[in-house]
Amino acid sequence: MKRTAVVGTVLVSTVLLSGCSWLRGTDGAIPAPSAPPTSASPTPSDTPTADGDSAADLLEASANPRTPTAAPTEAAAPAPTLTPIPAGTVLAQGDVASPKGSIHFHFRVVADGADAFTAEYSGFTSTLPVPVGVGLFDLPKEVGDGLTYRGVGDHTLGGPTSTPGSASVPLTGSGVEPSHLGTLVTYSAARPGQDVPVEIAADKVLAVTTVRWSIPARQTNVHPVDHGARPNATGSVTAAAGGGAPARYTVAPDDLIGDVAARFGITVRALVWLNEGVQVFGEDQHLYEGTTLNLDPLGR
User: Which end of the chain has a smaller Cβ tally under 10 Å, C or N?
Assistant: First the structure.
């Protein structure tokens, strides 16, 4: 809490009365008052305030306030944009077969427009005595691994069947484009504790397929460039996107959102667009230390 101490200046005018009489001299005349004294410099009281600080302490503290950062000007800047991928565009497709030939199906990923995507599975067959699930991952997996997380677009395709099945699954959480999801994992969706061989127990990886993406070029008017550390923007760039452009920024102590945006040559509006839900606090809009900010328009 900021506290401001107001110390009033007390002017004391002293009337000097001569003679033995308090009102008049011995001759009965009222003596002329002497000139009033010059006002003294205000002296802060050492009496503690309600918060326990003396007025002197508050004056000393207010003599060196932290200079606030001017609010950034956004009016002249255009709204940040990223061209969408046209609906119906097929971004990836391929065939899946487990190592022993027990599972087969075809997959493809299709753009729905407005940065939404759907994974489509067709021709699914399986001879395994357990349900089979599928999900997309950004890190590679190995057959026989155990999953603790079932990936983006996690979906159970079905149990043992020779009649080809199909499914369409929205890829919620894939971002503005899903090309970072480079691995399609087929896994056992058996019940925990189900009496089956260990290699097809619950969450065991049954097949791993590399996803090869074909993403159309996209245009944006947000192009962050790191101009170097500056006051209230001293964090580090922890990753680089294609062409060496900054992709991630780690917030340092005392970082302000306006100064961080200025460091990368973008507006606060653009920085918020890149980081939906980013939080600040205080009148100067401090960022929370240790927060990682995205600077890559395709990584939103």
Answer: N
